Amino acid sequence: MNVMINQPLNDTLCDERLAFAELARDLANKKLLEGIEENDRYPFGPLFAEAIKDAAVVGFYGVNLASEHGGVDMNAGMVAVILEQLSLVDASLAAVVFTNAAALEIIRQASLESDCSPLYAGISSLGTAPLAFQSFSGPGETDMPQADGGGRISGKARYLVLGDIADYAVIPAAQAGAGGFSWYLVDLNDESIAKSKPIVSLGLHACPAVDISLRETPCTLIGGPGCGLKYFDAMADGMSLCAAAMSLGVMKGSFQSALDYTSDRYQGGRQIIDWPQVRMMLANMAIESKTGDALFSRARQEMENECQGWGFTARAAAVHIGELAVKSTADGIQLFGGNGYMKDYPQEKRFRDARQSQCLLGMAALKKIHYITDYIEENK
């Protein structure tokens, strides 16, 4: 059962943001809704390449790209609005947009203290095709390749999201004898790079990832050497808001589908929705969605107003809304009476996507540890 999503948009958005949100909703309903089951078969079926290209046509890969480089020059709050609307239907394309935005944000953070104009100019597909990035891991969660002093990288970059469809990637690498790590831009079409077969993931199947092996691959340093963690932390504040938006969209979509299904089906001579146990589960899902919505709105407002400590709110929102989404989608499967485990309905997919979304920018447990560590340090 495919349900057209008509989620009302936030009427406090400015006209430009409202227009982008409408674009995202239209793209999701027209390009993703009908093919959810087929798209979810990737890599054992075709990739929804047309939808990925359509996202470029409407400008989704340039939202947080500076206008002087051909972008829209808006912040993570606008990216988040787009991601929520896409995730109401299918979060896989939202993960593609998220990955590109995270890579761009690393470069933008570096550009605040270094001249990155040559680097921007060297990306021929900037804004028209997504950048690859390890968007489901944080620093220290995977082994990094090694960079030498001559501008070359060797080693492996694991679970590089979009690595098999993007032309360029932003990846971290360590340098022998140097402290910390740095970010580098690499051309994925270079003959020194070998790619694995597409990796089968828990959820978000149509957001492809591969492992890549680099052998003295030419690379371009992004920003200052050894500044990798600083750029990642600055990126993670805004992109945590985007991760929260994806989980929120999945959760709202799950509730809407469950509400429609229970309203249409009958058991024992009456609608399923009239059974008290069903109403209680729907009530819990509605409350969880409302709670997530309120937390997300608060985090976005703090970011927009540059309130002190807004990054802590954004990161807390990402973790908590992610947990709410997993619980809500699990309840959604039960409301489908087990049918949610079948491909006839989207609930089973939403549960997997909610789980996978929790890993954006790193494992949830590690994000909690980093959160309290940073919070204690900030409030000494």
Q: Kindly estimate the percentage of residues that lie in beta strands according to DSSP.
A: 5-15%
Global geometry: globular
CATH class descriptor of the largest domain: Mainly Alpha
Overall helicity: 40-55%
Structural class: alpha+beta
Remind me, CATH topology of the largest domain?
Answer: Butyryl-CoA Dehydrogenase, subunit A, domain 3
Distance between the termini: 53 Å
Would you identify the regions where 5 or more consecutive residues have pLDDT less than 50? 1-5
Second-tier CATH architecture of the largest domain = Up-down Bundle
Strand order of the biggest β-sheet: 2-3-7-5-4
- Number of DSSP-assigned strands: 9
The description of the largest β-sheet is: 5 strands, mixed, barrel
Radius of gyration: 21 Å
Number of helices: 11
- Report the CATH superfamily of the largest domain: Butyryl-CoA Dehydrogenase, subunit A, domain 3
* Number of spatially distinct domains: 3
Mean pLDDT score: 90
Summarize the entry for a quick read.
With 380 residues, the chain is an alpha+beta fold. Helix content is 49%, strand content 13%.
Keywords summarizing the entry:
5-stranded mixed β-barrel; 380 residues; 9 strands; disordered N terminus; Butyryl-CoA Dehydrogenase, subunit A, domain 3; 11 helices; two-stranded antiparallel ribbon; 13% strand; alpha+beta; Butyryl-Coa Dehydrogenase, subunit A, domain 1; Butyryl-CoA Dehydrogenase, subunit A, domain 2; 3 domains
